[in-house]
Amino acid sequence: MNPNFPSLAGIKAAHRRIQPFIHRTPILSSEAINEIAGCEIVFKCENFQKVGAFKARGAANAVMKLNEEQKRKGVATHSSGNHAAALARAAGVAGIPAYIVMPSNAPEIKKKAVKGYGGEIIECEPNLMARETTLESVVARTGATFIPPYDFMDVIEGQATCALEFLEDEEGIELLMAPVGGGGLLGGTALTAYYMSPEVEVIAGEPTGADDAYQSFQAGKIIPQSGPNTIADGLLTSLGELNFELIQKYVSDILLATDPQIIEAMRLIYERMKIVIEPSCAVPLAALLANKDRFNGKKVGIILSGGNVDLGKLPF
């Protein structure tokens, strides 16, 4: 394994480091959902996290690990989603500048969040090349440190603290599930499970309309995302290389779910648990319900990744 991957001591240190900036999120369950699923499910509710998503963890850890000179010049990233808000907030709390490159078509609600946390938005054309070249010019102009959204050791280490809390707070988990997009949450989760409870199986949920992680996992090499099309807008990015290494080593399977299945699982959580989640968040439950035999009678921990959804555009 890459010797630079976080150790268990590193993950625990990250957890102490970010403590003042995050919530230790609750674990909830639903008897009605257990009955439907044919297994016992416990949900780690990162939809109640600061900025409404697990991304608060990785961003806080990356910002807190900067040296004084780096802090003075601030941080920069390109993101249209939760990482943008998470980094803006972490920088705001640390009292340092945050420069966020966002595509012009990014949802207004996400732009509002970034501005609300004190981030400076630099808009660009809505394509990856424009995002990357705009970011390069911002970094050249400001000297800010680029904090990538998922393929970055300090971010993976921060995201790994979610599973650390989960396994500390809940006994008897046999399977651990998380959604996969760039893979920061899944990679960090798999690493923590390997260190703390190697007998726990880690399984990812992914949309059929953005299944590059599934394809890469099957092929044993990274197959880039092309033309993703899914309601799970938080999972549209290509899998990161560092995360792929962790996933190959410590994840036992990636299961797929269709958009109708994702919407059904999302609705189930709204109706039975009375909590707000975003579509990406419902993917692991959707994948579980599509493969019930695999989980029959087991105790399953699912990380609910976030709750940033435009309530005016609910799919049901």
TrEMBL record:
Gene3D superfamilies registered for this protein in UniProt: 3.40.50.1100
Matching Pfam families: PALP (PF00291)
Alphabetized GO MF terms: ATP binding; L-serine ammonia-lyase activity; magnesium ion binding; pyridoxal phosphate binding; serine racemase activity; threonine racemase activity
Cofactors required: Mn(2+); Ca(2+); pyridoxal 5'-phosphate; Mg(2+)
Name of the featured protein: Pyridoxal-phosphate dependent enzyme
UniProt keywords, alphabetically: Lyase, Magnesium, Pyridoxal phosphate
Domain Tryptophan synthase beta chain-like PALP positions: 18-306
Domain of life: Bacteria
Signal peptide: none
Gene Ontology BP, a term: D-serine biosynthetic process
Similarity field: Belongs to the serine/threonine dehydratase family.
Protein's UniProt keywords contain Disulfide bond: no
